[in-house]
Structures are given as C-alpha cells and as structure tokens.
Amino acid sequence: MTDAIAIEPRDRGTLGIEIVGAAAVVGIGLAAVVWQQRRRRRSIADDHRAALVGYLRHHLAGAHAAIRVVERLRLVHAGTREGRLFASLFDEFREERDVVRALLGGLGASSVSPAGAALGSASSRIAGGQSGDRSLFETLEGLAIGVQGKRCLWRALMMLVPDDAVPGRRTLAGLEAMAVRQWEAIDERRQALAVEAFAGLDLPATEPAID
User: Fold this and answer.
1) How far does CA 206 lie from the centroid of its chain?
2) What digits encode the pLDDT tens for the residues 76-119?
3) Cβ(78)–Cβ(131) below 8 Å
C-alpha cells in the first residue's frame, strides 16, 4: 500500500504577503491607467488651448491692422461724415482689442502680436483716399469684411466662454450687436461711395443666362 503524500497547509503569513503583493500590482496597474488617461486629457486640453490662443491672436492681428487704418483715416477725414465714422470705429475697435487681449491673458498667453503690428503698419500706409475716391471705397469694403469676421469671433466665443468671464462692460451678445451696428454704418457709406467712385460709367446691359 502506497503511503499518502502529506500536503502541508500554506503558511498563513506567506499567503497574506502574496495577497498584498497581488493587490499592490493591481493598484499600480490601475494607477498607471488613470495617469495615462489624465495625461491624455491634459494633452488634448493643451492642444485645444493652443488652438484657441492661435485663433485669438489671428483676430488680434486683424484688430491691430483695423485700428491703424481707422486711426489714420479719422485724421485725414476730420470734420466730415467719414471722419466721424472712423473716430467712432477707432474707439470701439480698441475696446474690442482689449477684450481679446484680456482673454489671451486669462489663457496664460501673451497678447503680443508682432505680425499684427506689422500688418497694421502696412495697412495704414495704403489706406486713405478722399471722399469719392476708389481707395476710400475699397478701404470701407475691407473694414466691412473684417467686421463680419469679428462678429464670427464673438459668436464662436459664445459657445466657449461664459459671459461672466468676458472682461469689460459688454457681454458677448453686446459685442456681436456692436459689430452688426459697425457693419451697417460702414456699408451705408460704402454703398453711397460706390455711386461717387464709379459715377458716369455706361455699363452695357447683360443678357440673362440661358440654361
């Protein structure tokens, strides 16, 4: 008859150590997963932040250019209807620029925009013209396009930024409404100047297109 092999029960202390070790391994694994997830979320958040900073700086560059243009034109056309329009735009454009600068500061980003300053300097040199000149008409058209782009900025920020986070005395809806008023005032003068700038032209009648 074969003797039975005696199986010694596992030492309780050893079993406890193994359980603790297994738990530690699982805990480290979970911690690593959580850390990777947090790192991934931080990376995505950083990418989104960088994209927003770039977007705001793009509009800041446009603001610098527009301010330089209307600053010059309010002096060139002082005492005229255009001069009063440009003086009003000069004040409002600077107010809007300050909002964009403050938003960049809230993101921890610099509001310095060398490209914007260079663009503004170049724009101020080419803008001008007397009332009725094509150059003034085209300047107003460029400003009208820029104001529509700025309106798109405020509407985009409405989806991202709560109103109480917007610096200054206006809400984003108020800034959009101001952009609408700016566009209407600019376009009113632009349309009037179209008649003056291109007066006397005898344009040929065009035949309707035939499909």
Assistant:
1) 42
2) 999 998 899 999 999 999 999 999 999 999 888 887 755 555 55
3) no
Taking the C-alpha atoms of residue 193 and residue 140, their distance in angstroms, rounded to an integer, is 9
pLDDT (0 to 100) of residue 109: 87
Q: How many residues are given for the chain?
A: 211
Interatomic CA distance for residues 115 and 59, integer angstroms: 11
Residue labelled with tokens 């009208």: 144
Q: Which residue has the tokens 């632009």?
A: 190
Cα separation, 178 vs 158, in Å, equals: 15
126 or 191, higher pLDDT: 191
Give the C-alpha separation, 92 to 87, whole Å. Answer: 9
Which residue has 């150590």 as its token pair?
17
- Say which CATH architecture domain 50-197 belongs to: Up-down Bundle (1.20)
Residues 6+ apart with CB under 8 A from 177: none
pLDDT band at 189 (very low <50, low <70, confident <90, very high): very high
Could you identify the residue written with the tokens 């997963």?
33
Written as one string, the DSSP assignment of 68-97 is: HHHHHHHHHTTTSHHHHHHHHHHHHHHHHH
Residue 190 has pLDDT above 60, yes or no: yes
Domain boundaries, the chain: 50-197
One-letter amino acid of 150:
K
